[in-house]
Structures are given as structure tokens and as C-alpha cells.
Amino acid sequence: MPELPEVRTVANFLNKNLVNKIILKTECFFEKMVWRNELKDFIKKTENQKILKVSNYGKYLMFELASQIMISHLRMEGKWSITSKEVNIYNKNHLRLQFELSDGEYLKYYDSRKFGTIEIWNKDEYLEKSKMDKLGPEPLNNQPPFEYLKAKAEKSNMLIKAFILDQSILCGIGNIYANEILFSAKINPERSTKSLTDKELKLIIKYSNEILQKAIDMKGTSIHSYKSGDGEIGQFQNELNVHLRKDDECFICGSKIIKKQVAGRGTYICLKCQK
Ligand SMILES: [Zn+2]
Fold this sequence. Notes:
- There is one protein chain.
- Helix 1 packs parallel to helix 7 and helix 6 packs across helix 7.
- The chain is an alpha+beta fold.
- The chain is built from seven helices and eleven strands.
- The mean pLDDT is 94.
- It has two domains: 131 residues, MutM-like, N-terminal (N-terminal domain of MutM-like DNA repair proteins, Alpha-Beta Barrel), CATH 3.20.190; 124 residues, Helicase, Ruva Protein, domain 3, CATH 1.10.8.50.
- A hairpin with a 3-residue loop joins strand 4 and strand 5.
- The longest helix has 20 residues.
- It is globular, with a radius of gyration of 20 Å.
- The protein starts with a helix and ends in a 6-residue tail after the last strand.
- The site of zinc ion (ZN) has 7 residues, from loops.
- GO terms for molecular function: 8-oxo-7,8-dihydroguanine DNA N-glycosylase activity; class I DNA-(apurinic or apyrimidinic site) endonuclease activity; damaged DNA binding; double-stranded DNA binding; zinc ion binding.
- Monomer.
- Keywords: DNA damage, DNA repair, DNA-binding, Glycosidase, Hydrolase, Lyase, Metal-binding, Multifunctional enzyme, Zinc, Zinc-finger.
- InterPro entries: DNA_glyclase_Znf_dom_DNA_BS, FPG_cat, FPG_Glyclase, FPG_N, H2TH_FPG, Ribosomal_uS13-like_H2TH, Znf_DNA_glyclase/AP_lyase.
């Protein structure tokens, strides 16, 4: 599943290529992906609208139109591309939505698993209607403040792995980066959040910022089927210290990395380094 760095990379690509283009025609081939809106309203609200900006918040892509915001969540396998009508850089059987643009190009959404969603809301109500107002801060630019995370941790009964995956606490971290952050912070993912010291909470903030920013700079992690939008391959997979390294030697201590399910997700741990 794309996490914050991959979605930021897609947003940057789309923003560079879509600003000031007008959506002439909207076609949806999988009605259920249109979330919390009627399909005919969705089509009416998107057609003849100029795209002003594309950005992201956590794993949410946001297309800013004149008076509305269109929100796309890629879930497991969603992908956007911009090509001519005939060209499909992904499997054309997975094409779920397309927008004909004013310059003759097509903005296309593909989704093999069909879990991705799209919705559209007025600018003054989109945060509430999409429930994006429930999301926590993105761990970038020295956010969140220590006091924020400490207050959340004190109230939490979760394991630390589940805690940093909870989008209402920190927004944008998925399984890959959760594994990497806890390895760098030398924290065992199965500890209870309440047991974290102030120093450990600060390390979580430090490494979530460093790792996500470095992954953004490298255009994300390319495993499974993620591509950055123009088919470019992100390079952060070459920087992974623990994720997908089951039975390999830890780069720090040489012990074998183990894999187990924690908080329902495949979790890679060096038991010697992560206490
Ligand atoms: Zn180790």
C-alpha cells in the first residue's frame, strides 16, 4: 500500500502535469469507487472544472478545483497516470476512471484490487465530510510536537506498532515505514505504548521525520507494484534496514532479522537491537 512518501511523489507528478488543465469529460467504469457521493453528482461536479492544484495529506491525494476538492485514496493498488486516450501504462482491464483533459490528454485511474476510493466536496466542508479532520499530523517538518505524542501515548492501550500505524495519531505511516522507524529507534514493536520513555517518544518523532523525508526525496519505495506516476521507480527500497529482510543479518549487530505478525501486519524485528 502506498504510504505518505509514495503518495507525495504521485501528488508532485500530478501537480506538475495537471495545473490549469480543464476536465472536459468524466467517465467511471466502477461505480462503487465513488465514495459518499452519487456518481451522477460526481460527474457533474468534475466536468468543466479547472484543476488548480494537486497535493496530498498523508495517504490522501487532493485535487483542488475552483470550489471543490476531489479526494482520492489509493488503498492497496490504486495508480494514476496521464497519457493519450489509447495508451495504457498499466493493465487496461484495471482502468476504473478517466478524465478527458483540455489539452487532449487523459488522466486515468487504475486499480487491480478495487479498494481505492474517490469523493468530492465543497472546499468549506471537505475536511469534515471526508473525515480527514480526524487525521493526526504528518510526521514531517519536526511535527508532531513531543507534548502531542506524549499525551496520545499516555491514553493509549495499543502496542507501539499499532499506535504509529493509527492515522488519527500520526498520518501517513504504513507498514513499511513503521517497521523502519521502530528499527531505527531501537524499539520492539510489541511493547505497549504506555511503556515508552520520553526519550523513546522523541526518537519516534525524530526517525519518522528523517525516514519519511528521505523516502520522499528518493521518490518512495518501489515494492509490489507502486510507481511514481510517470512510471519512474522510487529508490527507497535500497535503503530499507529491516523491512523484507527476514533471516538476513542485522546491519548493526549481525543477528538474524525475524518476521512475525504484530498488530495484524508483517513485522520485521532485530530482537537484539530493538528492546
Ligand atoms: Zn541488530
